[in-house]
Every structure is written in structure tokens, then in C-alpha cells.
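Please check what follows.
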Amino acid sequence: MIYDVAIIGAGPAGLSAGLYAARAKLSTVIVEKMYPGGQAAITYRIENYPGFAEGIAGAELTDGIKNQAEKFGAEFLNGDVEKIEKLDDRFIVSMKGEKLEVKTVILATGAEPRKVGVNGEKEFTGRGVSYCATCDGAFYTDKPIAMVGGGDTAIEEALYLTRFASSIHVIHRRDELRATKILQERAFDNDKIKFIWDSVLHEIKGKDTVEEVVVKNVKTGEMSSVSVNGVFVAIGYTPNTDFVKDLIRLDEQGYIVTDDHMKTDVPGLFAAGDIRKKSLRQVVTAVADGAIAAVEAGRFIEEQ
């Protein structure tokens, strides 16, 4: 079978693309190597998605989009895409033991949490170092932890972690946060959250699990130690574009370069969501990207 559209990734962008493509009567397959929903699915509560005044659980929102896409006929396939090739007027999407032949491709594989790259980070990942507060927060009930970062994600997760931890030490390399004002106000008003300004994480120490972090002041060079049982990292993301780096144009950070129609420099190949170069990476912009990409894929097929 030759599909009209193959969507790689089932986060909000991929799910939205699947919904719009399937509803347009395009034969649609969505390939996901883990679970539908992406990073949004493990977000405890999304407060800035239009239409939900009290907020909505990430899993509930993404499950709803998935169900809509399936209702209109989108197929879901579990698999890890290793390579995409352009072959005349078709694309070959290669996974382990399986290949798909498709007319258009929408890349929506998102991005992964960026690592700090300090001693102890790799060794203690899963034993005190985490990149997901909603996944691991409950493990730190009544324990002190550190949060690395100062943007929206870091502060949102720090606020969430106050449900469990006895204290949260936010380590930020500047003397002011980058998070939105409303999140800053909530964090400053919470007695459990403490700030270590002008500082970076230098080392993570412990025996079987994390016991302390060494912090370096970027202005004075002074080192200090903080006793914690967990370290959460929220310093940005790295796009999942390795498998297409030799096929399409990427920017210096590895994000896919597209135009406003989600078109890459390869005809018939589109990108949507956090994987592409853009100014705002939010669920609302991801679903918009997905919708545009699907509509443009349909137009591309008609023109061909």
C-alpha cells in the first residue's frame, strides 16, 4: 500500500496532522516509537491551551486528539524510523524490519530534554537525576531537591514538585528568571522554593543515589555544596533530527528550517511542532503547525 501521508511522531503536532489529514480523506499513518502524546502527555496540567479555563491534564488533551484522528481513519504504527529516502515521486520510510512507501511525509518527532553535561549526571540518571517532574516527583516526598533552569518549564516543574519535596533549590545562571511573570510570582510566593542565583550546576555527588550538588557562582567562581536527594533538569531541548540531517536543511541547533507552510527544502516533505525552527514551542503552536502541514501535504498531492 502507498499511503498519502506518513507522519513521524505522535506528539501534539503529529496527532493534529493526523486528524486533519485523515479528515481530508488522505490515507494516513502515524509512526511513533514510544507512546502517543509526546512531552505533552506527561505534563501534569496545561493551563494555557485555549478553551480550558481550569487547565487540562496533558494526557487527557493528547488522548482526545488521538481519538479524533482514529475516528477519521488515521492508522497508528509503533516503530522507530531510521531513515527516509526520496525516490522519484515517493518517499521510503525505513524502520527495523519494515518499510513504508508514501507520497508525503510530515516530520513531527519533537525534541528531547537537553543534558547539563556535568560529572555525575549520567551516572545518577534514574537514581536521582530526572528530566520529568510529573514522572518522578512522587519519589521525592519530604526530600530536598534541586531544579536546574529558569524558564517556563523549569519553574512550572518546580511549582509542581512543591507537592512532594520538602524544598526545591532552583539553580539559575542569571540573577533573574526567564519564565513568564505569572509563574515567577507563584514561585517567589512559595516558601518551599529557594533560588541560587548567578550559578551553574558543577557536579552531582552521591553513593547509590544523589546526596549533594556542587554549584559554581559564575561571577565569583566560588564553589558551594547543597544537600539534595534529587536533581531535576529543565534547560531546553535538542531536536530529534539525526535521522534526516543528510536529507533536509537544518539550522545551527539542529532544528528543521521550514517556511510558513511547513515546507522543507525537499518537495513533499514537511515538518511541524518542536522539531522545526520557530519562535514559540507550545502545544497550541504545535497543533497549528500540524494542521497546516496536513493541509499543505494534501495540496501537494493534488498538484502532483
